[in-house]
Amino acid sequence: MEAPAIFLLLLLIVLSIVLTGKSLIYPRRNAIPRTYPVIGCLISFYTNRNRLLDWYTELLTESPSGTVVIHRLAARRTVVTANPSNVEYILRTNFDNFPKGKPFTDILGDFLGDGIFNVDGNLWLKQRRLAAHDFTPKSLREYVTVLRDEVENELLPFLEDAAAQDSLPFDLHELLRRFTFNIVCIVFLGIDHRCSLNPSSPVSEFDRAFQTASAVSAGRGSAPVSFVWKLKRMVGFGSEKDLRNAVGEVRRCVDEIIQENKKKRKSSANRDFLSRLIASGESDETVRDMVISIVMAGRDTTSAVITRLFWIIPGHEETEHDLVSEIRSERTGGLDYESLKKLSLLKACLCEVMRLYPPVPWDSKHALTDDRLPDGTVVRAGDRVTYFPYGMGRMEELWGKDCDEFKPNRWVESKTTRVLKKVNPFKFPVFQAGPRVCLGEEMAYVQMKYVVASMLDRFEIEPIATDKPVFVPMLTAHMAGGMQVRVSRRDGSRVKRPSELHFFSKSQQQQ
After folding, report:
1. Cα 288 from chain centroid (whole Å)
2. What is d(CA 297, CA 214) in angstroms, rounded to the nearest whole number?
3. 366 — phi, psi (to 5°)?
4. Of 285, 326, 346, 493, which one is least surrounded by beta carbons within 10 A?
5. What pLDDT was estimated at residue 458?
6. Is residue 121's pLDDT more than 70?
7. What distance in Å separates the CA atoms of residue 451 and residue 446, rounded to the nearest whole number?
8. What pLDDT sits at residue 497?
9. Reduced to 3 DSSP states, what percent helix, strand and coil does the chain have, rounded to the nearest 5?
10. At residue 473, does pLDDT exceed 90?
C-alpha cells in the first residue's frame, strides 16, 4: 500500500480510540474474524491483504456454519459464505434480492461500463439473450473448427519450435493467454486481430492497457479502505491515473474494431457476435462495454485453468499416462465436438483443477432488502454478500479430508465406470449457477479439452520452478509471474488401451 494510504489507516485507528474511549485491546467476544470496536477487523484485513483467499478460507473453516460476517471500518458489512445452501439461496431461490448492485458496479464501472458482467435487470437480460446464440450445439461444432485451425497452424508449430530449440524455456501462461485472445477476436469479434504467440515478443498497446485496467479494478475491490481509491480517482493520482489512461486506450481500440465491423457489414453478411450486437440497434457505448466483458472472460479464464493443470499433472505420472491414453483412443480420426465429449478423465482433471483454483475465486452480490440465509445468518439491506468458490473447494464438509489433494477420481460415479458425477452446482459454483449461470460453460470445456488434448498427445510439459506458485485473485485469478516451462516431444511408443486405463490412482501427491 502507498504511504498516504498507510498514514490514513493509522489516523483512523487513532481517531477510533479517541472518539470511542475504548481500548483496542478488547475485541468482541467469539467474533470470527477478531473484531474490535469501530475499526472492526480492519487490522486483520490489512495484515492479510496479500493472502485474502487463504485468510477467508481459514475463517470459514473455523465457522460452524461455513459463513462469516466481516465488519470493517470504511467498508460495508460483508457476509462471506462457503455453505452450498446459502449459495443456492443467493443465486437461485431469492435471486431477485441479490443483484450485483450499485456498489459492485461502481468498482468495475470505469472499466466494464454497462457490459453483461456489470449490470442487472433488463439490460443484463437483453445482453444475455443476444449472447445465447453463440453457445448452441451448432455454434459449438463450428467453434471446434476454429480451434482446430488455430491449434494446428499456430499453437502446435510454436511448441514444435520450442521443443527443437534445446528446450528453451518460455512462459506457458502468457502463450495460452495470447492464444485465447486470438480465439476471442476470431469467434466473437469477427476479426483476425492476431497477436504473436511468442511470450517473449512485445504485447500490443491494447493488451497492455487491458492488463493494467484489470489489475487496478481488481485492487479496488480488495482495498482495505475504499475511500482511498475513490480519493485517488477524484484527484487523478497514482493507480487511478493509470486506470483512467488504460481504460481510454482499451476503449479507443474497441471503438476502432466496432467501426471496422460496421464497414464490413455494408459489403458482407457477418455472423459473429459483434455483428449481431451492432445489428440489434444498441448504442456504440453499450456495444463497446459488451465487447470488453467478452474479451475479459474469454482471454483470461481458460488460459489460467490450463496453465494450472500443466503445473499439477507432471507430479501425477499415472494420471498423465492415463490422460494420454484416453486422448489417443479418441483422436484416431481427429478431435471433433462428439469425441471431445468422451474425454471424461480430462474433464475430471479440469474440474479438479477448478475446484482447487477457480478462475473466479469469489463473487459478490448486494442485498436489496433485509433477509436471512438458510444457515440463520442475518443479512441487512445493502450488505455485500459473497459466495466463495476458492474456500468451498477446501472444505472437508464438502469434499472430505483429502480436499487439499488433486484427485480426479472424486468426479466419477464408481470405480467400474468412467461416467462423471452430476455434482450440485451450488457446491461447485465455478460457472455460477441459477439464472446467471455462465453461458460459456460448455464452450470453455470444449476449448480446454481441445487445447490440452492436442498438447498432451504430442508434448511433455515440464514446469521449471519447484515452489508452489502464488494464486493471484484479480478479476480472474491466475498464477503470479506466469509459469516458465520446457517442452519436449512425447515418446510415441505404445500406450495402454482404454481397457487398461488406471483411471483411479491409488495415491496422489498432495498439493
Report:
1. 21
2. 11
3. -135, 130
4. 493
5. 95
6. yes
7. 9
8. 37
9. 55, 10, 35
10. no
The sign of the dihedral angle between the CA atoms of 437, 442, 443, 445 is: positive
Task: State the greatest distance between any 2 C-alpha atoms of the chain, in Å, as a whole number.
Answer: 76
Q: Is 438 annotated as a binding residue?
A: yes
Contact by Cβ (8 Å): 206, 200: no
**Phi/psi zone of residue 437: left (φ > 0), alpha (ψ -120 to 50 degrees), beta?**
beta
- Are 88 and 95 in contact, with CB atoms under 8 Å apart? no
- H helix or E strand, kind and range, residue 386: strand 384-387
Owner of C-alpha cell 504511504: 3
Q: What is the pLDDT of residues 324-369, one digit of tens each?
A: 999 999 887 789 999 999 999 999 999 999 999 999 999 999 999 9
Instruction: Kindly report the number of other CB atoms within 10 A of residue 131's CB atom.
Output: 19
Residue the block writes with cell 495415491:
507
Q: How many CA atoms lie within 13 A of 221 on its CB side?
A: 25
**59 vs 479 pLDDT, higher one:** 59
Dist CA 204 CA 150 (whole Å): 19
Instruction: Output the 3-class SS for 430-481.
Output: ECECHHHCCCCHHHHHHHHHHHHHHHHHHEEEEECCCCCCCEECCCCCEECC
State percent of the chain over pLDDT 90.
58
CA dist., res. 112 & res. 122, Å (int)? 17
Q: How far apart are CA 239 and CA 231, in angstroms?
A: 11
CB 505 within 8 A of CB 407: yes
DSSP string for residues in 80-134: EE--HHHHHIIIIITGGG----HHHHHHHHHHHTT-GGG--HHHHHHHHHHHHGG
Phi, psi of 279 (to 5 degrees): -65, -20
- Cell 457489414 -> residue: 265
Which CATH architecture is the domain 94-360+394-427+430-500 placed in? Orthogonal Bundle (1.10)
Q: What residues are paired with 459 via a beta bridge?
A: 489
Q: Strands 363-366, 170-171: parallel, antiparallel or unpaired by DSSP?
A: unpaired
Instruction: Show me where the domains of the chain are located.
Output: 1-93+363-393, 94-360+394-427+430-500
Residue among 212, 219, 214, 226 nearest 384 (CA)? 226
Per-residue pLDDT tens over the stretch 32-68: 788 888 888 888 888 898 899 999 999 999 999 999 9
Q: What does the pLDDT average to over 399-426?
A: 89
